[in-house]
């Protein structure tokens, strides 16, 4: 029996690896990432959308919302489209905000009330807690919404905006990762 030559075997293995991984990369870009990116630009309320990052088990999307966008509607539209395109992968939405010190102070001042309402599942206390936090300020605006999976809070101070999405399923100890 003839001994296999090393160079042809290595070249064949390298070419096969390039074809397989290159093909997978092209498929991922053309069949998942590009349609998802195009979809993000079509969602009402999104002013800017970065290229989505697709991992084995999650899809990470970064968007900037337009001034009049409903956080709940935009988040719901993104979740539906990601499910259609990427299947059951976990969705991670990052919202680019221009936050100022006043909004951060407002959020931190209301954090105990919000955390208590989330922990006890008394979601109706969240709008009252946010209204209490902005009481006396003419420029600060707060909008709270809820659906089956999340609580949405939008805070505005002139041009500055802070969007927060709080999952209704409790997480064990720690601060919400997207707050």
Task: Give keywords.
4-stranded mixed beta sheet; Alpha-Beta Plaits; 3-stranded antiparallel beta sheet; elongated; 7 strands; alpha+beta; 2 domains; 179 residues
Overview of the molecule:
Strands 1, 2, 3 and 4 form a four-stranded mixed sheet that branches. A three-stranded antiparallel sheet has the order 5-6-7, with helices on one face. The chain has two domains: 90 residues, Cation efflux protein, cytoplasmic domain (Alpha-Beta Plaits, 2-Layer Sandwich), CATH 3.30.70.1350; 67 residues. α1 runs antiparallel to α2 and α3 runs antiparallel to α4. 46% of the residues lie in helices and 24% in strands. β5 and β6 form a beta hairpin. It has 179 residues and is α+β, with helices and mostly antiparallel strands. It has four helices and seven strands; from the N terminus they run αβββαβααβββ. The longest helix has 37 residues.
The chain-level mean pLDDT equals: 85
Q: Please, how many helices?
A: 4
- The Cα radius of gyration reads 22 Å
Strand content bin? 15-25%
- Roughly how many Å apart are the termini? 67 Å
Q: How do the SSEs run, as a string of H and E?
A: HEEEHEHHEEE
Shape: elongated
Q: What is the fourth-level CATH superfamily of the largest domain?
A: Cation efflux protein, cytoplasmic domain
> Number of domains in the coordinates?
2
Examine the coordinates and then state which fold CATH places here, giving the name of the CATH topology of the largest domain: Alpha-Beta Plaits
CATH domain class of the largest domain: Alpha Beta
- Under the CATH scheme, which architecture of the largest domain would be assigned? 2-Layer Sandwich
Tally the beta strands: 7
């Amino acid at each position: 029996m003839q001994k296999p030559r090393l160079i042809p075997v290595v070249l064949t293995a390298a070419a096969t690896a390039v074809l397989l991984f290159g093909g997978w990369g092209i498929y991922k870009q053309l069949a998942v990432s590009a349609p998802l990116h195009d979809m993000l630009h079509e969602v009402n309320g999104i002013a800017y959308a970065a290229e989505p990052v697709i991992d084995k088990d999650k899809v990470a999307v970064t968007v900037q919302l337009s001034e009049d966008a409903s956080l709940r509607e935009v988040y719901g539209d993104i979740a539906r489209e990601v499910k259609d395109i990427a299947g059951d992968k976990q969705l991670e939405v990052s919202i680019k905000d221009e936050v100022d010190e006043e909004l951060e102070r407002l959020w931190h001042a209301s954090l105990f009330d919000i955390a208590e309402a989330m922990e006890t599942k008394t979601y109706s206390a969240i709008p009252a807690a946010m209204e209490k936090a902005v009481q006396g300020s003419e420029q600060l605006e707060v909008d709270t919404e809820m659906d089956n999976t999340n609580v949405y809070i939008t805070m505005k101070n002139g041009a500055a905006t802070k969007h927060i999405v709080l999952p209704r399923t409790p997480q064990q100890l720690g601060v919400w990762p997207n707050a």
